[in-house]
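Researcher: Please translate sequence to structure tokens.
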Amino acid sequence: MNESTPRVAYFCMEFGLHEDLHIYAGGLGILAGDILKAARDENLPMVGVGILWRQDYTEQFIDEQDRPYDCYHEYRYDVLEDTGVVVTVPIQELPVRVKVWKCTAYGNVPLYLLDTFLPDNPGWNITAQLYGGLEEERVAQEMILGIGGVRALQALGMPVDIYHFNDSHAVFAGMELIRQQMANGASFTDALLSVKQHIVFTTHTPVWAGNEAHSHRVLAYMNAYDGLSWEQVTTIGGDPFSMTAAGIRLSRRANAVSQLHGQTAREMWKSVPGGPDILAITNGVHCGTWQDESIRQAHAAGADLWERHMALKRAVIDLVERRNGVSLDENVLTIGFARRATPYKRSDLIFSDRQIIGELLHSRKLQIILAGKAHPNDMGGKATITNIVRIAREFPESVVFVQDYDMVVGKMLTRGCDVWLNNPVRPMEASGTSGMKAAMNGVLNLSTLDGWWPEGCQHGVNGWQFGGGYQGSDANQVDSVSLYQVLRGEVMPAYYDHRADWMRMMHASVAMAQWQFSAARMVREYYERMYT
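Model: Translation complete:
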């Protein structure tokens, strides 16, 4: 770092720094937490801006009818520092007070968390539940993050060269910066051009439904125009107001989160000025958080990884026995699958042909551990979980679904399974980071060519691909057939009959992942390509 290194404020709706700080939902938050840790490791001038969610995203368990249900708890934290700063954000006609907390407890650069949970505060419950509520509540939360975040940094006396919007939830910060310049006499056009020089934007989802849009009726009702006119707000986000399009228009540079996602994002947003120029900076994960230290040391020494791996595998088997009462066999090839439950990720694809998978499971040559959460309002995702739970009941000795997926479960599974399965519908996975965590622990990926895996995969060397990148309407059929072929014809023979080859693949996997797909590489690339 030198005096010319840009000072960055990294805005995100969620941060996954540690399992005890319940302010994250999934991959977006874990990525945000990892980049704050990597910035601290690299001594880079960055701060995070997020929200102190008081009731978590959700804890999710399975009821007697095999259906997921959600639980919420109100949390208090002793790892936060009171900055003494309170700012005000006008929501509707109410002056909502926003308290600012600081967190540096988990090896991260400072993270400033915004909190409306104050006595006698209008809108005190705005920061209750992450991604909860109706459209009006979501807009209010995004106003707290964006408008409140800018005002908080200014009240803290925090100089900022670059505002990084990690996904679109923070775009109201750009409108607040424009409003402030216009209040000082600038025209809207000049203010927009000036503000653009200080904003970069990361788009995450190639799924249209995941790109949020709001009606102008709701924006006006919530006072989200922030002093701008309908024409000016429409110039930024269109009508209806597309949060992603607004992020692109407000930023000097925008990026996708893998090379394949870059192609997809450029096509999706080609009609938006700046959309055809979206860069691709592939995600990475924080090695210090996700890579087991004994695996790292053994790989660095060129030592045998098997003994270390088996200790981690036994820890997973113990977890399953405690949580599910199922005794898995440490000598059986164990596949792991854990991520957000949503249809395009196809968490039940491996069970497509019940005869084939039944033969493999009954032979006691294969066992599968699955975990995941669905969004509380995602009935399709919850139905997928119900299906998996019922499949696990069909194969009680070989298939397990671990309830209440969180950072603890994710860390243990990505360290202790033998194979990491990933089968999204290409090209709907923007990046995916669970497979990176598995790879740097010597857990071999078995994945469709989506997200980050086309960049990392050397088939038969550090893992396997199946499906060949097929994108037709019958992808489920094509991919499931290919999955069975690779699993039976390559993965299982390598595990049971060619252990030396498997060991070489484990080392190749670690070597591939621990720099190329690390948060250290990612944050340096952001500074070099986006911030500077």
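Researcher: Any highlights?
Model: The chain has two domains: 8-284, 291-516.
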